[in-house]
Amino acid sequence: MTIDDVALLVRWDDDPDVAAAIGGRSADWYDWPAELIRDVPWRELLVAEDEGRPIGFVQLIDAGQEESHYWGDVEPGTWALDIWIGSPGDRGRGLGAEVMRMALARVFDQHDAEVVLIDPSVDNRRAIAFYGRLGFETVGVREFGDDECLVMRLLRGPTD
To answer: Would you place residue 76 in the very low, low, confident or very high pLDDT band (cuts 50, 70, 90)?
Structure first.
């Protein structure tokens, strides 16, 4: 991702479904221009594409190294991710599952993760069901700032 992606990311974040999933509009939670120029060793920001066309966002985070300690004290090898499909026309076509499988393969294979965490809003039943179908199990409910989230995890499997 580069600074040239800011307008696209802001447009996606301002979509009502994306904003509901991430806890507000982009301007409320993430300073894209500042974040895209930061080079930190604990994070990877990616744009997902379908046949060369940008369709979504993926953030891979080393949860133990991340500077805000958002996830608290975690074991080494614990990673977290954020994912969303940006445009309504790209949702419901199986692209999210494909992007998620690719993100999980990357975090397990390239970053040697042992566990991956995700934190959908407790109200986001669609996302919770989606992650459950991918093998994520419920850890519990946790408040992150003003958001009540369901923490879910996926353990490295024997073929990961």
So the answer is: very high
Would you state the pLDDT for residue 135? 95
Using alpha carbons, select from 145, 119, 134 the residue that is nearest to residue 21: 119
Burial level of 8, CB count in 10 A (0-12/13-18/19+)? middle
Pick the more confident residue, 88 or 159.
88
Q: Which residues contact 25 (CB under 8 A, 6 or more apart)?
A: 13, 14, 19
Query: 3-class DSSP state for residue 34?
Result: helix
- Rounded to whole angstroms, the Cα distance separating 104 from 116 reads 8
Sequence-separated (6 or more) residues with CB below 8 Å from residue 70? 63, 80, 144
DSSP annotation string for 91-147: TTSSHHHHHHHHHHHHHHHTS--SEEEE--BTT-HHHHHHHHHTT-EEEEEEEETTE
Cα(139)–Cα(43) distance, integer angstroms: 23
User: How do strand 147-155 and strand 137-144 relate by DSSP bridges?
Assistant: antiparallel
Average pLDDT, integer, range 120-135: 91
* H-run or E-run covering 44: strand 43-50
